[in-house]
């Protein structure tokens, strides 16, 4: 049974909400992007994988860099900056054409790098918010909510992709708006000590 005591902490709730929504946006857009590249822009599977490789590389590098940056600027500032970077990246992805341009690569760097900057401090907040006897449970709740976010994001992206004429023009601004709203929530509600 899930101890409801954990949900009495606003930092815990905000970090979990952030995790669920950024996973939904990231994996939903990744799914839609792969469909877009293959179905509408006629990329092969290999070309699609290569086109998406900057996202994977930036996510990996950003996570490593995020661990180094967090002690220097704090979780609140790092999460806010990462969310705003990602929002800019999502908007930049509106420039996607069959020819991957420098603008799109820069958007991918912002999108994945910003997302990577959010994850380590978000996880630290979840673990710090729980009593030491419940850190395993807190971590499991966090991981579960992020997976639910991914599932819902992919389902919505798939639904939009086959129901809307230009789903990319809906998904990217929506993800940017969600990330901007999360950045504002974190900036206003997350204690500096979190």
Automatic annotation (TrEMBL):
SUPFAM superfamilies: MFS general substrate transporter. Keywords: Membrane, Transmembrane, Transmembrane helix, Transport. It is found in: Membrane. It comes from the Bacteria. The chain crosses the membrane at residues 12-37, 49-69, 81-100, 106-127, 148-164, 170-190. It is a multi-pass membrane protein. Residues 12-194 form the Major facilitator superfamily (MFS) profile domain. GO terms for molecular function: transmembrane transporter activity. One of its GO terms (cellular component) is membrane. The keyword Lyase does not apply. InterPro entries: MFS, MFS_dom, MFS_trans_sf. Signal peptide: none annotated. This is MFS transporter. It comes from Acerihabitans sp. KWT182.
């Amino acid at each position: 049974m899930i101890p409801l005591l954990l949900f009495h902490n606003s930092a815990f709730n905000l970090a979990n909400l952030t995790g669920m929504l950024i996973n939904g946006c990231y994996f939903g857009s990744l799914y839609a992007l792969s469909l877009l590249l293959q179905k509408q822009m006629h990329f092969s599977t290999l070309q699609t994988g290569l086109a998406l490789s900057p996202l994977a590389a930036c996510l990996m590098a950003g996570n490593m860099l995020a661990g180094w940056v967090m002690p220097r600027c704090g979780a609140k500032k790092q999460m806010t900056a990462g969310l705003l970077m990602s929002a800019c990246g999502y908007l930049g992805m509106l420039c996607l054409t069959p020819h991957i341009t420098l603008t799109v690569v820069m958007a991918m760097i912002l999108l994945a790098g910003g997302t990577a900057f959010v994850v380590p401090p978000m996880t630290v907040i979840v673990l710090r918010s729980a009593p030491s006897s419940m850190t395993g449970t807190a971590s499991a709740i966090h991981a579960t909510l992020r997976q639910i976010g991914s599932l819902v994001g992919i389902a919505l992206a798939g639904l939009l992709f086959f129901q809307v004429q230009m789903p990319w023009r809906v998904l990217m601004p929506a993800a940017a708006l969600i990330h901007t709203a999360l950045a504002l929530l974190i900036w206003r509600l997350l204690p500096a000590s979190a």
